[in-house]
Amino acid sequence: MDLSAFSDEKFDVKQWVGQVFEAPEMKENPEGHAATVVMKLQLFIQEVNNSLDETSHQVLQSLPRLVRDVEAVRAEAARLREQMSVAKADIVKVEQETAQSMRTLTRLDTVKSRMERTCQALKEADNWTTLSADVEEVLESGSLQQMADKVAALQQSLDVLGHVSDYEERRQTLEEHRNRLEATASPHLVAAITDNDTARSLVLVEVFRQMARLPQLEKYYVRCQRAELQRRWSAHLEARQEEGVLEWLTAFSETLVDTWHTQTRWLEQVMPHLSPASTLCCVLADTLASLQPSVASCLDTATKEHSDPLQLLEECKRVTDRLVTTLLQVADATAGSSGSVPAASALVEATYAPYVTQLQRYGRYQEQLLVPTIKALVPSSADLQERVDAVGSSVSKLMTLLHSALDRCLSFTYGYCLPQLLDAFQCAFETELANVNATAKQLESQPSAGSDWTVFHASLRLLQAIGDLMTQTSRLEERVLSVLSQPPGGVPAHLSAARLLSAGDQSRYQQLVDRVAEGDSLVLLEPCHRLLDSTNEEVQKVAFRAMFAPIRSQLKAVETVDWEGRGGAGASLSADLPDFSYTPQEYITQVGQYLMTLPQHLEPFMTQHDPTLGRALQSGVMPYSSSVSGGRSESESSVVHYIISCLSEGACQVYADTIVRIQHISAGMTRQLVADIDYLGNVLDDLGLRLAESLHALSTLLRCPATEYGRVSAAAGQPPLPPRLVAAVRQMRGLVSES
Asked: Whole-angstrom Cα distance, residue 532 to residue 522?
């Protein structure tokens, strides 16, 4: 049994009893287990009582001895108090007797100190005069160590003479001596640093320390290392003339890393007062900013000659990324526990500075890659069918190119160059739509016959391509919006938009990000959508004209029919014949057959569950669509109905316009014309459509007898007939004089 819980200050009886009675033994034999627990508790209580009795007995036996010890300590404390009182009285007596003597000794010590300082000042004043006289001789001798010793001694003398009236004049004299000594020592220092001569450098560092010019050492060191690295850069370029900027950067990066390691050890030995990490960051930053030829000019020349400038820049930037990462790691390691090196920021900026100008041209570089590739997707010398097929397949290829360009932008610039990329996208769409427009012109110039459905199918495939392009463009835009709505991914800690972009490009990118963050209904590819919409409208007109061409060519036969019936087929027709005696003429049966065949030729475009055709038709306005009842959608049945309705409506209106141009018509040919119109109406009825209002009105006017023409044309209870049609039919039937 665990009895440790009884010693807990927050002991809870109920909780402890509950835990005991949750034991498995309690479930098997509750009463027996309870009795066992009670017995154990009683034994434990008895044991505790025994322990308390024993402890109490021991305490009672120890009390007399403790009382005697306390009394002894009290007596010792009383004796100590008496002795301290006596000592305090002795001290007061001594102070009273020796106070005057102590004051006298203090005054004598002050006088002594002042006399020593005065003596030292006189000695240093005499020393300054002596040193001033000797320093010229030492400077002419050229012994740097002696010169440094003399200058240090002059400084020591000047420190003592700070209160004299000609102190400023003496200070200027000392500064002149220092300048002369530095001018003498600097060539030796430069040579020692350049040769990595540790022994000579240590001597010269001591010289600069003695003349209080240690801060100047870093400037000389930076200048020497910069010159050395410039020499090695020039050597790389001369030795690798046949190679390119990528190889130059790779080799020079290795040189910079090696220089860091070797110079870190050298600085720790020779110039321990300097921070190796900060000093070397300054050296490399200054070197990269002053290279001749500069890295920026080398990149500029290389990108002009390279077929894929962005690929070259990506490869060069990877080399730069590795260099910066390595240098920052060794800088942190060199700096020790302090970690960050303030000068590292200047190094990073100098390293990435050449890419700022290049990324200003990011959109142009991307455009140079996209436009020729997109132009080649649709061969200009192909026939109509091949060209339409090429346009259809070019959409997926175009989107692959654009998505790849977006991926490249995210990996290369972390998305910072998205505004320039969107400009390149617009040029890409202009090029693709130029291919579509050229194909549409070729389609429009292609002759079309009722028995040849090549042009009809080509028109639909071209519309499908437009719809597919619209759908894919919306998806591309959604992806760009998703990218802009999230922080850039994979950006190294040392990089930001400010390190890669110019001020103007930074502002442009930030404005774009802010607009997306504000949740506006932003259309990133709005110029592309406008181009698509205008092209879609033009292609729909061209496609409609191509699909309508067989109908129009057949309806032209109306103008060649002998409607007056003089010596023609209509001469034998009488107005008294029954209606079944009149059969539709060939021109209208050809139109009817064409319309009835439309569903069969539209079916292949609908059975693939491809909404692209509906997407194109939904965004444009096909001719004669204003008279089509019902809305448009991307469903298959709606698309078929919409196309057939537009063609049927166009056929009715063109047919009606052709009929009203007939000058005169005989009674028999009037019945024939009514039969032709009825045939067209039956065809449309089979297609689930109806005659256009204008053609239905013509049929009504042509059917009525001449005696009832006036009444029918102005009959009450029905919509009035168009005055233009009424007048045209009057003229056609020779009823002009009838009131």
From this structure: 17
Q: Which of 206-210, 235-239, 692-696 has the lowest mean pLDDT?
A: 206-210
Confidence of residue 51 (pLDDT cuts 50, 70, 90): confident
382 DSSP assignment: S
The answer to whether 277 and 335 have CB atoms below 8 angstroms apart is yes
CA distance linking residue 253 with residue 237, whole number of Å:
13
Is residue 275 within 8 A of residue 338, CB to CB? The reply is no
The one-letter amino acid code at 490 reads G
In the prediction, which pLDDT does 338 show? 43
CA triple 226-229-231, angle to 5 deg? 110
Looking at every residue in the chain, the average pLDDT score rounds to 81
What per-residue confidence (pLDDT) applies to 716?
43
The CA-based angle 189-193-198, given to 5 degrees, is 100
Cis peptide before 578 (omega within 30 of 0): no
Contacts of 198 (CB under 8 A, 6+ apart): 266, 269, 270
Category of 633 on φ-ψ map: left (φ > 0), alpha (ψ -120 to 50) or beta? beta
CA distance between the termini of the chain? 127
Tell me the per-residue pLDDT of 23-49, one tens digit each, with 9 for 90 and over. Answer: 777 777 777 777 787 888 888 888 888
The C-alpha atoms of residue 624 and residue 544 are separated, in whole angstroms, by 10
CA angle 462, 467, 473 (to 5 degrees): 125
Contact 331, 346 (CB under 8 A): no
For residue 89, give every residue at least 6 positions away whose Cβ sits within 8 Å of its Cβ, in sequence order, or none.
Answer: none
Rounded Cα distance between 246 and 319, Å, is 8
Is pLDDT above 60 for 418?
yes
Please compute the mean of the pLDDT values over residues 638-660 and round it to a whole number. 88
Q: What's the token pair of residue 513?
A: 């990000």
Residue 250: pLDDT over 80 = yes
In sequence order, the 6+-apart residues with CB closer than 8 A to the CB of 659 are 558, 673, 695, 698, 728
Question: Can you give the three-state secondary structure of 689-711, one letter per residue?
Answer: CCCCHHHHHHHHHHHCCHHHHHH
**289 vs 347: CA distance, rounded Å:** 9
Alpha-carbon gap, residue 355 to 123, rounded angstroms: 65
Nearest residue to 644 via CA among 675, 587, 606: 606
Residues comprising the chain, all counted? 739
For 76, the token pair is 């010792």
Q: Angle 58-59-63 (CA atoms, 0-180°, nearest 5)?
A: 120
Residue 645 identity: S
* The residue type at 253: S
Cα–Cα distance list, 418 to 35, 307, 400, 411, 428 (Å)? 83, 22, 17, 12, 15
Instruction: Give the model's pLDDT for residue 150.
Output: 64
Do the beta carbons of residue 649 and residue 628 sit within 8 Å? Answer: yes
Q: For the stretch 464-477, what's the b/e string if a residue is b when 16 or more beta carbons lie within 10 angstroms of its beta carbon?
A: bbbbbbbbbbeebb
488 has a pLDDT exceeding 60: yes
Lowest mean pLDDT among 294-298, 395-399, 559-563: 559-563
734 CB-near residues (< 8 Å, 6+ apart) = 664
DSSP E strands, 90-183: none
- 3-class DSSP state for residue 485? coil
Q: State the Cα–Cα distance between residues 730 and 393, nearest whole angstrom.
A: 55
Mean pLDDT along residues 539-554: 88
pLDDT confidence of residue 134: 61
- Give the model's pLDDT for residue 374: 94
Q: Give the integer Cα–Cα distance in Å for 302 and 248.
A: 12
Domain range annotation of the chain: 213-360, 364-538, 561-732
